[in-house]
Amino acid sequence: QSLDSTLHYIHNDSDLSTNSSFSPEEERKSKVQDVVPQALLDQYLSMTDPSRAQTVDTEIAKHCAYSLPGVALTLGRQNWHCLKDTYETLASDMQWKVRRTLAFSIHELAVILGDQLTAGDLVPVFNGFLKDLDEVRIGVLKHLHDFLKLLHVDKRREYLYQLQEFLVTDNTRNWRFRAELAEQLILLLDLYSARDIYDYLRPVAFSLCADKVSSVRWISYKLVSEMVKKLYIASTSTFVVDLMNELVEKFCRCHKWSGRQTFVFICQSISEDDCLPMDQFA
Fold first, then answer.
1. Are residues 73 and 100 in the same domain?
2. Where does a domain end: 159, 189, 215?
3. Which residues form the domain of 96?
4. DSSP annotation string for 91-160
5. What InterPro entries does the record tag this protein with (predicted)?
6. Taking the chain (282 residues) in consecutive chunks of 10 residues, what is each chunk's mean pLDDT?
């Protein structure tokens, strides 16, 4: 009965929209959404109340964070204002597991909300996650390409300066973090210009090629070969020639055998993937 009355109230809320005492902004915020029963949504939103979380279930905030993209998809971007405060509360939760859950799904939420809401409401949260614990940062790193491709070009370029920061982790033995960075950089090559690749992605790629862990290095060889291919296709010959000269100088003529071995593996990757015409390769 209470559910029926709630639905009846939702579908007969025309008096709210005709109330002239509300400004357009206040009206937007006060208007009751009509997608799901309001009582059900209120119940969900109340899960972030700290006192409730302590008395009911310490994991309740994590469950709430896990479900949030689904709730946002159901309500639609026009009703994002209903969830915005709850999302920001969860994003600043003291438990890293809650923040980690949101970090792993922020790219999905960006698709649901569209570019304007993403730029205004999600980018600040995303930036906060980039400076968080490694357990949280890995969530945004695993879907870095998925998130950045949804941003405008100017906004996307701002993150070029932060790529170096991913090389620094709380635990230096966390090699999977660097391996994931190499994987993401391969995807990011499609999002940036030849100059951006040469200026910002190249130094990170070279650093990863000299990593202490072989798994990271193997992915990095593929990254460098794809970088050569991208710069060659871009027809900015100076970049690809400069890059190849640096490969020779940095690795082929390295005084350590591991550096010279790296050069051979990069050459192998370049030739196998047809990244360059053979005369250019020679």
1. yes
2. 159
3. 30-159
4. HT-S-HHHHHHHHHHHHHHHHHHHHHHIIIIIHHHHHHHHTS-HHHHHHHHHTHHHHHTTS-HHHHHGGG
5. ARM-like (IPR011989), ARM-type_fold (IPR016024), PP2A_Regulatory_Subunit_A (IPR051023)
6. 44 40 50 77 82 66 93 92 92 93 96 92 94 94 95 91 86 89 96 93 94 94 95 84 93 94 96 92 90
